[in-house]
C-alpha cells in the first residue's frame, strides 16, 4: 500500500512519514477512526514505508523487495492479527490459520468492516459469534517475537479490530505492548477506542483518522467503479460515508434502486395491500441479510430527510432529484407524531436481522406497523 493511493488524510500521512525520517517511530500506535475509512490503509502504508529499502521523500518506492512483499502481504516480518470464530474444526483459532482469506478480502476491499470478515466464517452467521481475539493469539505472538526478525529492521505486528480482544488476551499482551523486543512495532487499527482496556490504551500513541471527504470519495468511486458522481454521493449518504459499505453495495448490489424499492413498499403499506405485502416479504426474505439491512438503513435515512424537508432548511437535504420528487408526495406522511416510532421500529428490525431472526416475519410485522403509523395524523397542523 502506497500513501499516494490513500484518499485524503494529508496531515496524517505527513506525520507518519516524518516519524520515520526523524527516527521517532513509536513502538505501539493506535490508528483510530470510523468504520469504512482509511485507517487500515494508512497503517499498512506506514508499515511498508518503515521497511522500504529505497524510501522516497513522500512515499515508499514500491519496487524494492520489501515493498513487493508488503504489497502481497507476504513479508515474513509482517504479522497479522484479527478476530476469529471458534468452530468444531478450530477450537483454539488464531489469525495465522485464516491469514490467506483475510489478505484476499483486504485486497478486494481495503475498507472492509468486521461484518464482512465474519461473513467469511459463516455467511448467515448462524452461530451468532461476532469474532474475538483469543488468548491463544497472545501466546502465539509471545513465541514469535522471541525469535529474531527474518530480514527487516522492524517486525510489524498489525492488530485489526483490537477492541475484540477478550480480557485475558489484553492482559497477556500488556507486557509486550509496554516493552516489545527491539525491532518490533505494534500497529493497532480500531474503530472504538473506548472498548479497549484503559491499561492497553495508555500504552499506545494515538493516530486519529477521519471519515473520507465526500467529494474525494465520490470522485474515487466514479473513476474506480464507473458510476456517476450523483450515484456515488447517494451511496455515500446511504452508508454514512463508509467507503467499505459503499463499495460492497456497488459490487454486490449493483443496479439496485433502493428508492424504487422503498417507494413501492410504502405505497403497498399505505394502500393496506396485504396480499402484495405477503408477496413482497417472501421476496425480501430470499435476499441476503446485507440487502435487507441496507434497505432498512435507507428507509431510516429517508424518514430523517422527510423531517428536514418538512421542518428545516431544505438546503440541508442530502437527496438526489429522484428522491426529491418522491419526497414531495411522501414527506407529508412523516411528522413529529410518528417519525420517532418509525425510526425505532426500523432500527429494531436491523438489530433483529443481526441476531439472525426470521426476515419474513420481521418485514411483514414491520409492514403492518407502517400501515398504522402512516395513517397517524398530526395534532397541530403546520402553519
What does this structure look like?
It is a single chain. This protein has 383 residues and is of the alpha/beta class. It has helices at 10-21, 39-51, 65-71, 99-108, 114-121, 135-145, 167-178, 198-201, 214-225, 229-238, 243-252, 258-270, 274-286, 289-311, 321-330, 339-354, 359-373; strands at residues 28-32, 78-81, 155-160, 184-190, 205-208. It folds into 2 domains: 3-211, P-loop containing nucleotide triphosphate hydrolases (Rossmann fold); 256-373, Zinc Finger, Delta Prime, domain 3 (Up-down Bundle), CATH 1.20.272. It has 17 helices and 5 strands. It has a 5-stranded parallel β-sheet with strand order 2-3-4-1-5, with helices on one face. The protein is elongated and about 70 Å long.
- Kindly report the spatial arrangement of strands forming the biggest sheet: 2-3-4-1-5
| Major beta-sheet overview | 5 strands, parallel
Q: State the separation between the terminal residues, measured CA to CA.
A: 56 Å
Q: Structural class, from secondary structure content?
A: alpha/beta
Q: Give the overall shape, derived from the CA principal axes.
A: elongated
The topology string of helices and strands comes to HEHHEHHHEHEHEHHHHHHHHH
In the residues, how many domains can be counted? 2
Query: What is the β-strand count?
Result: 5
CATH top level of the largest domain is Alpha Beta
Number of helices: 17
Write the CATH homologous superfamily of the largest domain.
P-loop containing nucleotide triphosphate hydrolases
Helix residue percentage: 40-55%
